[in-house]
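Aim 2 progress update. The chain analyzed this quarter is reproduced below.
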Amino acid sequence: MALLITKKCINCDMCEPECPNQAISMGDEIYVIDPWLCTECVGHYDTPTCMSVCPIDNTIVSDPAHQENREQLWEKFVLIHHAV
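Predicted structure tokens:
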């Protein structure tokens, strides 16, 4: 499933440059994750880098509105990075 940045976000700017899919951008008040670009780093890393660099626990969580399994995340990665 895609990830979601909660209102706990302090806009520290740590997550945005770490996203290999450029799925993170500044929203109206806090950073947001585009669920159509988020693959939870499948295809790039073993774990989501945004979660690992975030200094506030439980700020980046699984998005219940965009549930995907690892295979679906892999297919999304292929579409994003290998589209012909």
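The helical segments are 49-53, 70-82. Residues 11 and 41 are 21 Å apart (CA to CA). These observations will guide the mutagenesis experiments scheduled for the next reporting period.
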